[in-house]
Design a protein that fits this description.
- With 171 residues, the protein is mostly helical.
- The chain folds into two domains: 70 residues, no CATH class; 68 residues, no CATH class.
- Helix content is 64%, strand content 2%.
- It has ten helices and two strands, in the order αααααααββααα.
- Strands 1-2 form a two-stranded antiparallel ribbon.
- A hairpin with a 2-residue loop joins strand 1 and strand 2.
- Helix 1 crosses helix 6 and helix 7 crosses helix 8.
- The radius of gyration is 17 Å and the shape is elongated.
- The N terminus is likely disordered.
């Protein structure tokens, strides 16, 4: 399948911009609670400090809720920050959907996280069927965001999702 047959998957920053404000706030709160995001936290702290004319040290001291609101207020975020925001959101708020998708594919997982580092990419047919199964149980926007997130995270494994109708639903 050539890259011209299907539209490109939106980069994380574009997916982030399309999120409703309540989801952005959920994602931002999850982002600040993510202990594996120190690089992204540092970048976000500098961006927030510049925007609100605070010293980075003062931004660090803010409560999570305030840092989350400031992060959402930035509007534009880098691909690095947007990617971590989306991953943190899914890990904090969409575990049941992640698990349901992997169950539909017959992939072993622990609470929506794949255990097998050497997992073989599922066939296009299996991915299409799993996407349909997910869409039958979860809101279209949530399914679209999750499938898009998977695709840009690991196009080799999830590239077979290109063209599934469930990808094109608005968030």
């Amino acid at each position: 399948m050539s890259e011209h047959e299907h539209p490109e998957i939106a980069p994380p920053s574009q997916l982030w911009k399309q999120l409703p404000s309540d989801r952005k706030l959920q994602a931002a709160e999850a982002f600040w609670s993510d202990r594996n995001a120190s690089v992204e936290h540092a970048e976000a702290i500098v961006a927030i400090a510049q925007r609100i004319k605070f010293r980075p040290k003062s931004v660090i001291a803010l409560p999570v809720e305030k840092k989350a609101r400031h992060l959402v207020a930035l509007g534009n975020v880098t691909e690095l920050i947007a990617a971590r925001l989306l991953v943190a959101y899914h890990l904090a708020h969409q575990r049941p959907m992640m698990a349901a998708f992997l169950d539909a594919l017959g992939i072993a997982h622990e609470d929506g996280l794949i255990n097998d580092e050497e997992m073989e990419a599922p066939s296009e047919e299996r991915l299409q069927q799993a996407a349909k199964t997910l869409a039958a149980s979860y809101p279209a926007g949530d399914v679209s965001l999750y499938l898009s997130t998977l695709m840009w995270q690991d196009p080799d494994t999830w590239g077979g999702l290109h063209g599934v109708p469930e990808l094109t639903q608005l968030v």
